[in-house]
Amino acid sequence: MHDTTFRGHGWRPVVKALRLPLVVVCAVLTMGSGMGNPGCGGGDSSPTQGRGGEIQGTYVLRFDDASSLGADCAASGVSLPQGKTLVLSRPSDGVEVTATLEGESFDLTGIYFGGGVMSLDLTGRAQRWGREESPFFLRYVFEGDFSQDPTRADEQVTFSGTFRVTHEDTVEGQPRCSVERGFTATR
Beta strands 179-186 and 57-63: pairing type? Predict the structure, then answer.
């Protein structure tokens, strides 16, 4: 038995007829993906170029609940940074954010894309010394959203969300501090 359907020129007309529709489908599917047409975001090489992202600056912290953190937090050297400053730095051509918290010697880091995504999670790790000079670590987190995506560094903006401090690698017998409070930081 011989199958002559696949021999000769049987597929060439079909392939030729499908070339244009396949090219159109590929073009539509790759719009905005970095391949071909840049799509909705424009042709920016920077995620925030011309669209805001000017979040750098000094923010003053206020907490929804400013009550005492308790004895374990005091023994761990943790206090609520009420009224202290959070200073954000961000290069104009990048998404990485570094921050310093007034009174602390560690940096916090995060990523901010700008545009329609106005959230920022900052994380830092502080080393403290416990009883008998054994170190322990605290993880500081500021997780929140900006009220708007500022287009100028002098524009007033609010960053609000949740502030957390948790222990890492705590040795038995050392105090355990755990904090979770709502915050608002205003530039």
Answer: antiparallel
Q: Residue 43 has what pLDDT?
A: 40
Burial of 70 (0-12, 13-18, 19+ CB in 10 A): middle
pTM, two decimal places: 0.69
Query: In the structure encoding, which two tokens stand for residue 141, read together?
Result: 């987190």
Asked if residue 126 lies in contact with residue 112, where contact means CB atoms within 8 angstroms, the answer is no
Fold observed for domain 57-186:
Lipocalin (2.40.128)
Helix, strand, coil percentages (3-state) for the chain, rounded to 5, are 15, 35, 50
pLDDT digits (tens, 9 = 90+) for 104-145: 989 999 999 887 789 999 999 998 876 666 778 899 999 999
Backbone angles phi, psi at 10, to 5 degrees: -60, -35
The dihedral through the CA atoms of 14, 19, 25, 30 has a sign that is positive
Among candidate residues 77, 74, 68, 66, the one with its CA nearest the CA of residue 138: 77
Q: pLDDT higher for 163 or 117?
A: 163
CA 144 to chain centroid, in Å, comes to 9
The residue extents of the domains of the chain are 1-43, 57-186
Report how far apart, in Å, the C-alpha atoms of 29 and of each of 26, 40, 50, 61 are.
5, 13, 26, 45
